[in-house]
C-alpha cells in the first residue's frame, strides 16, 4: 500500500483555486519505528523510539526522545500543512507551558498543546519560533476527540496562522508573531520532548502544500507513483563508505517498471534496494523513473555524497578548515590533545592541544574509552557542528588514551576575552585578580558578573555555572579578589566563562583577616619543601592540585612542613583547611 506521496504536479482543486500538493502521508506503516519503515528521518534523540501504531504517528512526550522529519524542496510564498490529531486522556485538564509544541516546519510555525481556559481538557496554540504559544485557540478541546489543524506559514514575513476544523480560509483563525522573513523551509517535523505533562498526541492524514485548499482535506492520489525512501536528498556519508542503497517504493502500479540513473548511467527494471558503489569524495546524482510503454509516469530525484577524510595537524587547523569550508567535513586529528574536563552530560569532553581547544559533543557515545582530566587523546576522527556559536567535535569512532602534554592555562584579561573570544573558545585560561559582583551562593545554570583589576576596559563579563555537577554549586560566592581558571564558552555571540570545580575558583570566601591567617613560603620554591604558616593551633588539612584539577598531594600537617619534592615544575593550587576556615593558595615549583 502507498505510504507517502510526493506530488509536484499542479492540480485543479474543487474550489477552483490552483495549488501545489507537496506531500500526502497516511502513516499506513507496520507498527513500530516510523523512521525504519518510511522516508522520515531522525532529527535528534534516540533513534527508533518514534513509533507508528494502528496507522497513526504517536508523539509521546516523556521518555521517548526521537524527533523525526520529512524533507522536501523549498518553495516561496506560502507553505501550508494540515493533520488530524487527538490527545490521550490525562485524567485531568492539561497543565503545562514548557515547550509543548509537537509539530512544526523546520522549527518554525510550531503547534503547541496549551492549558484550557474555559473548563475543557486542553487547547492549542501557534508560535513562530518561541517555546510557548504566541496565540491560543479560544475554544477548549476534548481528550480523545480528533481535530484537523491547518497551519499556513507566510514565508516572506515569517508569520504563521492556525485553524481548527475549518472548511474555508475565511473561517476563524489565530496568528503567531511576525519574526521577519524571508525564511526557507525544507522539512516538516514531529517532536517528542520531556515536558511537564508528558502527553501523548496521535497524528494522522498529514498534507503539505502551497495553499489552504491543498491541505484542508486529506486526499491520497490514485495515479501510479514512485517515492525514494533513502537516502534523503543532500545526505552525506562518512569516509570509508563503499556502498549506498537507494530504497524506493511504488504505488498504484500495474505493468510499470523502475529505471535508476546514477550520474548519467541508467540501469533498467531495477528493484529496491538498488546498491550504488561509492568512493570517498564522490558525489552522486540519482534519478528514479517509473515508466511504462507510454513513457515516464513519475520521477523522483536525490543526491548524496561521501566525505573525504580531511587530515588536520591540530585543533587550530581544524577550526581554520571549518571557517573556510563549513561544517560538512570529516576530520582526523593528528595532534594528541589533553583532556581538560569530562562530564556525563552528552558524553562531553573538553580537549586542548598547543594550538587551540574544542568541545567534544558525543551523544551516541562513540568514544567508549574512559578518559580522565589530564589524559592525552589520540586517533580522534569525526565531524563538527555548532551549538549557540560553540564549535563542537562530533566523534564517529572511539579514541585511545595516550601520554599527554600538560596544559598551562594562558593568563588573559577580561578585555582580551571580550575582544578575541573566538581565539580562546573551549580553552582553559586563567584570569587574575578577579572579583564577583554578586554575593550569596552559586546556583546552577545562572549568570554571574566577574571583574578583573587589569584597568583595561571593558573589565567585566559573564561567569556562568554551566556545569550542574560542579562541586561549587551551593557553595558561597567568593568575596575577595583572586585568580580563577576557567573554560571559555560562547552564547548568543558573546563570551562566557565557567569553572570546572571549586579548585578553579581560588578566591577565598573568608574575610581578608581570615585569609591572612594562612601563608606559604618559600613561594616560588625549588627546595622540595614549603612551610605553611597558620596563626591558630590545631591540625591543618592540605590538598594540592595541578592546574588541570587533579589532586596530587593530600596530607594532614602537624609540623607546618609540606614535602613537595614529588612535584614537577609548574603552577599548583594548595587548598588549606583549619578550624572551619578554608583558603586556596597558588604555589609555584621551579
Give a verbal description of the structure.
- It is built from four helices and 49 strands.
- With 590 residues, it is mainly beta.
- The strands form ten sheets. Strands 1, 4, 5, 7, 8, 10, 15, 16, 17 and 19 form a ten-stranded antiparallel β-sheet that branches.
- Mean pLDDT is 88; it is low at 1-18 and 507-516.
- The chain folds into five domains: 4-215, Jelly Rolls (Sandwich), CATH 2.60.120.200; 233-306, Immunoglobulin-like (Sandwich); 309-402, Bacterial OB-fold (OB fold (Dihydrolipoamide Acetyltransferase, E2P), Beta Barrel), CATH 2.40.50; 410-504, Beta Barrel (OB fold (Dihydrolipoamide Acetyltransferase, E2P)); 516-589, Immunoglobulin-like (Sandwich), CATH 2.60.40.3080.
